[in-house]
Amino acid sequence: MGVRLGQHAQPGERVLDVGCGRGASLFPAAERVGPEGFVHGIDLAPGMVREASRDIQRRGVSNARVTIGDAESLDFPDASFDAVQSGLVLFFVPDMPQAAAEIARVLRPGGRLALATFAEDREEDKALQATLRNLLTPYLPPPPATSTNQPTPSERLRTVASLHDLLKDFTTIECTDHLQEILFPTPEHYWSWLWSAGMRGMMESIPESTLPEAHHTFTRGLHSLTTPNGTLTYTMPLRFTTAIRP
Ligand SMILES: C[S@@+](CC[C@H](N)C(=O)[O-])C[C@H]1O[C@@H](n2cnc3c(N)ncnc32)[C@H](O)[C@@H]1O
């Protein structure tokens, strides 16, 4: 996903990566822009910025930098970038129109935006998610009584219409869908993955006393979903969107 997003960048360009995380799209973009260009990554999470900065140093990348920043309030002058990229971030931002306005502001006229978001789940994706959820639900605390009807981040920006609506100040909006398959060699790998991304918050809510049982039940339950050699395939429907700032 990151490689595809980063390929949008052109040699010599100044690129902003909004919500760069550990740099999945920042590093491919830095390679694309080359020594004449520059990539600046921002992320709200200090830990992400710390680790991505360490990776930049470790890899000896001299044309990229990462700082703490908020998509809703970009700390850059108007028209200071040729391109902005943002991979699986905007649906986390409480005020998405404000983030889109900020992105438009820091792009030069004619500058390009490249986004990755989730596309609509297919019936088979929903069925797999329900199975996985049902295996974990007995171990999760009940949802808070005050839970609102607000959509969760993974429910936001899931249609082409919602992207067009968000990017109403941009032109030439083009969306391409892609089914990203993630292959887990064993159910244990899938369990570890749940702790490494956005689901971690949910996993941490499992009480420590029942965690070993949850682990055992979940990984055993996954065996019915694996191929004979034990592999589990999880498919993520992704949507890549490009747009131009007039
Ligand atoms: C799913 S990760 C994607 C990271 C990276 N773009 C990638 O493709 O690997 C989402 C990232 O968005 C960051 N994030 C969430 N809200 C943000 C905001 N308002 N401003 C900047 N970054 C934000 C999170 O800290 C996290 O690193």
Radius of gyration, whole Å:
20 Å
Order of helices and strands: HEHEHEEHEHHEHHHE
Number of domains: 2
CATH class of the largest domain: Alpha Beta
Listed once per kind, the bound small molecules are: S-adenosylmethionine
Helical residue percent? Answer: 25-40%
Number of continuous helical runs: 9
Shape: globular
Low-confidence segments: none
CATH topology of the largest domain, which one?
Rossmann fold
Mean pLDDT: 93
Main sheet: which strands, in order across? 3-2-1-4-5-7-6
According to CATH, the homologous superfamily of the largest domain is: Vaccinia Virus protein VP39
Number of strands: 7
Main beta-sheet annotation: 7 strands, mixed
Beta-strand residue fraction: 25-35%
- Report the structural category: alpha/beta
Pfam families: Methyltransf_31 (PF13847)
Protein name: Methyltransferase domain-containing protein
Organism: Acrocarpospora macrocephala
GO molecular function, one term: methyltransferase activity
Brief characterization of the structure:
With 246 residues, this protein is an alpha/beta fold. The protein is built from nine helices and seven strands; from the N terminus they run αβαβαββαβααβαααβ. It folds into two domains: 2-120 and 158-180 and 238-244, 3-Layer(aba) Sandwich (Rossmann fold); 123-148 and 186-230.
